[in-house]
Amino acid sequence: MELSESVQKGLQLLADQSAVNHSSFQVLLDVSFRGLLSSRADPTVLDQPELKHMDRILLKQSHAALTTFILEAVKHNADKSTISSCFEELTFSTDRIEIFFSTYQKHKKDMEHLLSSMGRRPPHINDVSWRLQYHMKNGQLDKINEPFYLISLNTENEGSSEDINFTCTTEQLQDLVSKLKDAAKSVEKASQM
Amino acid sequence: MLLVLSEDHKEHLSFLTKADGSVVEEFGRLALEFLRKGTNPKIYEGAARKLCVPVGMVQHGVEGLMFLMTESSKHMISEVDFMDSVLALGFGEELIQSLLQLYVQHKHQIRSILSQLLCNQPAYHNLEWRLDVQLASRSVRHQMVPMVTIRLLLTRSSDVGSTQSCMDLQTDPSSLLHMISTLEAALAAVKTSDARRILRNIK
């Protein structure tokens, strides 16, 4: 994993056990993960009592470096050996690496979920609802006497949901369902390869 | 069901009752052209000159025929009822037969033209699909996410013609299976005995 110089320097500040003891390190870790995972920015994130003794500028530097490192690790799905070797190069002790790794494991799934939900994509179909109606007559024509379906696709795009409504006859619905079944069959075939 | 036409109407068509077969056929053809493509006043002038009658009379005659055809098609009048209604307007036997032919041949066409007048909801046209696997994105590498991309084509008809819209959507394999089972249940609904009874009895 490539780390920029400022990230390396920021992390190195945390390697010194006399400057930053274990509880402060743990608190800084928790605070970093919480900041990444919560949906609202909190300007008081670094106002923890265990961090009060640190110089403010160095604290911000190390917090930024730690957050960047966490994001890069999740992005590249880094394993324990990669993370350990990164930290060892920055002169971290083994138990400090262990503390980092166990906190990382705890939040990894949520972080992966957060990162993979970012990005542009077409609206995602979540659900479909239907209604069967019998068309008897309308303002222009009498004696139509045909059943028809009203289909509603519930889609979601970046948090906002939208319904796509359309009508179809029985034959058209059969066509639609057979095409969807083709798609499902090809998914199954691909998963067996 | 017999067609009941207003007095104005009967008057417009009365000029045709005295015309001969070829004129009525020509007017019938004009009426259908106009239903399909819209009216053309120049043709009225040409016909009026040929028949030596005022333009207004030609126009009323054609419009009267148009209305006769659309009303008959709208209510799906049987042949017997059509002949009786036309008889009541004062048409002779030969003309009744040629009008009946016109009606029977073009009934379904006229109905489909009329159905386009409805500003209705978008209707299903076609569905295209594609299976993709997402391998990476800007924020996460090393992914393996299967997804099905769907292009849904819909048409919507309005008085200016029909417009097609297409939308690109996406779904994951489990949502796809859920969709399929829900829509299969929808298809089964029209085959239940309740539905069949209604379809049989409401005609």
From TrEMBL, chain A:
CDD domains: Commd3. GO terms for biological process: sodium ion transport. PROSITE patterns: COMM. InterPro entries: COMM, COMMD3. Residues 124-191 form the COMM domain. PANTHER family: COMM DOMAIN-CONTAINING PROTEIN 3. Belongs to the COMM domain-containing protein 3 family. This is COMM domain-containing protein 3. The lineage of its organism: Eukaryota, Metazoa, Chordata, Craniata, Vertebrata.
Automatic annotation (TrEMBL), chain B:
Residues 123-194 form the COMM domain. InterPro entries: COMM, Commd2. Pfam families: COMM_domain (PF07258). PANTHER family: COMM DOMAIN CONTAINING PROTEIN 2 (PTHR15857), COMM DOMAIN-CONTAINING PROTEIN 2 (PTHR15857:SF0). This is COMM domain containing 2. The lineage of its organism: Eukaryota, Metazoa, Chordata, Craniata, Vertebrata.
